[in-house]
Amino acid sequence: MQRTRVAYLAAAWCLSYPDEELLERLPAIRAALAEQPGLAASFAAVLDRLGSAPLAEVQAGYVQEFDLSRRHALHLSYWTDGDTRRRGEVLTAFKQVYRDSGALVNTHGELPDFLPMVLEFAATVDIDAGRKLLTDYRPSLEMLRLALLDDGLPEASILQCLCDSLPGKSPADRQEIMRMAGYGPPTESVGLDPYDPRLLPMQGGH
Predict the structure, then answer these.
(1) Phi and psi (nearest 5°) for 82?
(2) Residues contacting 104, CB < 8 A, separation 6+
(3) Which residue from 137, 141, 145 is spatially nearest to 90, judged by alpha carbons?
(4) CATH of region 2-181
(5) Which of 165, 169, 156, 117 is nearest to 7 (CA)?
(6) For the segment 179-205, what is each residue's pLDDT rounded down to a tens digit?
């Protein structure tokens, strides 16, 4: 379980907006990963970029790929519920999981389904509850993994590591993910622009 905690916390930091604090953590992240055989390789490309490229360049790249591009959305319920009113209920359920843990979870202004937040919660507060959220939203992780892989982004290997930590093998393609999870068309738009038609939201609850 320690290996899983290390992987989740490293992923939480590597998938968050890069800042000076993250750069200061790089040696500790590398050291923790090195203690878990085979784990460091999944993070190597991202850590190398963080450690070598100018911070402003890395920050601009993050904004472009994760803040401005819905193809790489880091909010788990976006992939399953899209821009529907039902998503509000789902976000409330995420908040309830945090409250039930008894820990004070600082969302830092993010929605509660923000992947780095879920990962940090799992790693530092409640590994079982956190892994259940990740397992429930496995289709979201897999769709994000494929999108990152398609675009040649190094974070794809981190997503693969996360998926490998959950039960079962990763689906080979989007069609398999859709068959596994029961995807269908969105039912209730709240007026935001439609997202990539290849990333259809999933019907049904969790």
Answers:
(1) 55, -145
(2) none
(3) 137
(4) 1.10.3480
(5) 165
(6) 766 654 333 333 333 334 333 333 333
